[in-house]
């Protein structure tokens, strides 16, 4: 019997870090759906296709194959067979992913793949619409939040650690803009599921958040 934990929230709330930690402690598979959308965004960006060019985006869908594999416990995102982990974490690709993810056909393709993963493995899955669309029957649903300033600082430090230069003020603006797109898109907008537990990570470190969510999971028998 497979089990699932759904974690949703805006950019920079700590979803990936927290989901990885929980998956490790529970022995579940971690699925970063945002990385899958970033791979899609990378494909379109490299081919000069605009995020709002619906016709070209949908025409190219059948040529895009995004899969996930694991090497030494690390999630590897494969775009048409290529490991693109090192290419998809820039703000530019993140914004592109947010843009193309508003396309209904793109979301349908990704949701189908995500559901299939959860049908065969116990997962901790994070994203924007996991508790509401991808895994509506998940036993545990979490909605992570944090202040814009804290989320900006986290993303800034993450990019610096990878040797990427960025302007913090511009990064903050991009996060605010992305929040707006994610919450106002027509297809599967970012929102808290009715039965999700909200966890504010603004003043908590990763280990504190992980323990809090594990306690929530334990209270639900998971």
Describe this structure in words.
The structure is a single chain. The chain is α/β, with parallel strands linked by helices. It has a single domain (4-219), classed as 3-Layer(aba) Sandwich (Rossmann fold), CATH 3.40.50.300. Helices cover 50% and strands 17% of the residues. The protein contains 9 helices and 8 strands. The strands form 2 sheets. Strands 2-6-1-7-8 form a 5-stranded parallel sheet, sandwiched between helices. The protein has a 3-stranded antiparallel sheet with strand order 3-4-5. Strand 4 (74-79) and strand 5 (82-83) form a beta hairpin. The protein is globular, with a radius of gyration of 16 Å. The model has no long low-confidence stretch (mean pLDDT 91).
Based on CA atoms alone, the radius of gyration comes out at 16 Å
Identify the CATH architecture: 3-Layer(aba) Sandwich
Please state the average pLDDT score. Answer: 91
Parts with pLDDT < 50 across at least 5 consecutive residues: none
Q: Identify the overall geometry.
A: globular
Q: What's the level 1 CATH class?
A: Alpha Beta
The CATH topology corresponds to Rossmann fold
DSSP summary, beta strand count: 8
> What is the domain total for the residues?
1
Secondary-structure element pattern, one letter each: EHEHHEEEHHEHEHHEH
List the helices and strands and how they pair.
Elements: E1 4-8, H1 15-26, E2 29-32, H2 33-46, H3 54-60, E3 66-71, E4 74-79, E5 82-83, H4 91-100, H5 104-120, E6 123-127, H6 130-134, E7 140-145, H7 148-161, H8 168-184, E8 197-200, H9 206-219
Helix pairs in contact: 1-9, 2-4, 4-8, 7-8
